[in-house]
Automatic annotation (TrEMBL), chains A, B:
Family according to the record: Belongs to the NAPRTase family.
Record keywords, A-Z: Glycosyltransferase, Ligase, Phosphoprotein, Pyridine nucleotide biosynthesis, Transferase
Pfam families with a match to the protein in the record: NAPRTase_N
Post-translational modification: Transiently phosphorylated on a His residue during the reaction cycle. Phosphorylation strongly increases the affinity for substrates and increases the rate of nicotinate D-ribonucleotide production. Dephosphorylation regenerates the low-affinity form of the enzyme, leading to product release.
EC number: 6.3.4.21
Reactions the enzyme catalyzes: 5-phospho-alpha-D-ribose 1-diphosphate + nicotinate + ATP + H2O = nicotinate beta-D-ribonucleotide + ADP + phosphate + diphosphate
Protein name as catalogued: Nicotinate phosphoribosyltransferase
Domain Nicotinate phosphoribosyltransferase N-terminal: 8-131
Function: Catalyzes the first step in the biosynthesis of NAD from nicotinic acid, the ATP-dependent synthesis of beta-nicotinate D-ribonucleotide from nicotinate and 5-phospho-D-ribose 1-phosphate.
Recorded metabolic or biological pathway in which this protein acts: Cofactor biosynthesis; NAD(+) biosynthesis; nicotinate D-ribonucleotide from nicotinate: step 1/1
Amino acid sequence: MNTSTAFRTDRYELTMLEAAITHGTADTPCMFEAFGRRLPGARRYGVVAGIGRLLERIRDFRFADAELTWLAENDVVNASAIDWLANYRFSGDVWGYADGEAYFPESPLLVVESSFGEGVLLETLILSILNYDSAVATAATRMVTAAAGRPLAEMGSRRANEDAAIAASRAAYIAGFSATSNLEAGRTWGIPTMGTAAHSFTLLHENEEEAFRAQVATAGPGTTLLVDTYDIAAGVETAIRVAGTELGAIRLDSGDLPTLVVDVRNQLDLLGAHNTKITVTSDLDEYAIATLRTAPVDSYGVGTSLVTGSGSPAAGLVYKLVARQDGNGDWVSVAKASAGKRSVGGRKYATRVRDENGLARQEKVYVGLGPEEANSIPASERPLLERLITAGEIDERHLGASGTSRAREHHAMVRAELPADAYRLGRGDPALPTTFA
Amino acid sequence: MNTSTAFRTDRYELTMLEAAITHGTADTPCMFEAFGRRLPGARRYGVVAGIGRLLERIRDFRFADAELTWLAENDVVNASAIDWLANYRFSGDVWGYADGEAYFPESPLLVVESSFGEGVLLETLILSILNYDSAVATAATRMVTAAAGRPLAEMGSRRANEDAAIAASRAAYIAGFSATSNLEAGRTWGIPTMGTAAHSFTLLHENEEEAFRAQVATAGPGTTLLVDTYDIAAGVETAIRVAGTELGAIRLDSGDLPTLVVDVRNQLDLLGAHNTKITVTSDLDEYAIATLRTAPVDSYGVGTSLVTGSGSPAAGLVYKLVARQDGNGDWVSVAKASAGKRSVGGRKYATRVRDENGLARQEKVYVGLGPEEANSIPASERPLLERLITAGEIDERHLGASGTSRAREHHAMVRAELPADAYRLGRGDPALPTTFA
């Protein structure tokens, strides 16, 4: 597989392009928009993630000889379309919500302004990335709420596709997780990595004591020992005997955590290991984390539920044509009228309306307004659309490890601005109403 | 990102390796096993997928200079571990269930026989791939059952991570889907690709008729016209007027399908378009497909629910050390005793016991038996473990498009062998009991 991302695309994007080229409409100036009709899982707010990844993937969205040959040999599109694709490089404008921004139903998350051909080709890639990454970030921000200030580590790689796992780490980090188990996420996105040992390491040795001695000899007493391979009370006793009372932490990966954690804390304190922390990692989701709020847990490791969006593994975002220029160069709003899937046509701009205390009160969507005309917006409204691509030039601030770090800071600000209702874990209405202006 | 897959790994695999090297146990001969304690979503059987992908990813699991430098600079492991990793290439044996095989609780899906160091490093990669791909295949086989012989197309790329989407196409195809929308899945795995047009193509034009004319002019009357952008009855009438009564198909992507499809079939027949097929694509899962069993639908397109495992987005497989050699070279079975997460230690071999009619009756797991000694197994038992890697050499029959095609045929055979209970869509017990011998 080469580095081109152009084939991470549904075939129909190319057949539509072909028909539009034949019909002379491929160059029609258009506006596409990505948005969600509702929030995943009846949550109170969604979190955008994937923007930085998307921009890098759009940069690599080129049809090289390998792709063009395959399209020709497989009769996917005709020769004029293949010529068009050979020269393809996205040259339009893209505005969007930043990574880490909160969103609500009908928020115009991404606005793509380009020819029909250039914009339609990106549909699948845009949705793949934003749907998965935002699903993970939207689950992650709730776990951060439930953890109430205690650190969370992402360790779900084994429960997600091996490439998706790297994206999941990034989304979780943006939403407030502190670390990841995934090395590629550490290298690519600059996320702190963590991890010490699994049950297999204990089972490799004659007994738990030998395993702990081997680990402490290499990693030092500051390490985290996994104490639940056999009997937990015996495991804790052995851990402190081997590592001393300055053992960094013990990890629990099974059992009835709310009671177990109290027992283990008492045991550690009785052994004099007052500074030894307790980390728990057993099939946690936001509800299990919330249940542990009053328990003496120091940190959490979250896997399956995080990388699968805690019940909502795709954010349900769609990408629609919302406006096109007619023969006179005038913009025409367009929208389908399908049952249960209606859309609002037209160019959009969005702001978050805040009250005198700086608390968010409304998601305001201006229809027919572009970012260029947005200087008329009152100071109490925070503009939500950032410039991501200008005439094909990608804004590099969103990319790589620095873009990811910036997004994490942005999310912390955005979270702090939300009203108390946003932090409720139960299903319900969005925390802010979306109003059209 | 280079082509090495070595960083698609949890950090703790490397820290365990480091401690084992220091302690002199990294070369201990070991057996690891991947299995599920239960089936995802209380289904009747699971379907293995990802084996062919896994073997290709293991081939690329090498630590190049870029990886070694990063590990050193980030103090992940010490210099001896880095030396060890520089020379790493998996040199052990792997046996496993083939792609497309059915599985049950405790089925030994993958048996890895290698040194501790070589086997522990692969844990994350093995689980990432098998957990996602098998989740999709396990959902897909149920949709195939529900479709009762009508063809199914996979079109979920937009609702899955952009790389996971390619894996999902492969898993669905193995389980019996006929085609995919994803071009990369077509190229990489040889899956037939399909797709014609989205609502945006209709909205690009002044009206539906112009859009249909443009599409038919390029793709011919054998194409599929999407008729629900505005009014469906008017859309169908326009479609036949533009394309003629030999229009290939119309597609419905919204509405109350069981009644709608009957109306549209009647309308098409009244218009004389008896050969025009109806394909439906509106948020289908196995239950919605089953509801349409008596409706005049010709084919289905399935997206979100397929690529997210229809409620079970990860198969819940785990990877455990089950045996190791002691100082005398004798094999010792090992297993943890954690609450709710007990394992059966020891080397495993598995067969599917069939009755005189060739119907599967039992999943039989031999404990302490290796594939080499399996010639003593009765002819009524079908051996389930295939040789995948022998002393580091990958069996190429599982790879690429030909391996995928072979897996699809294998699954058709495996399905036909299952008892009627296996095809029930409701939650319940596994269709076969797992017995240990």
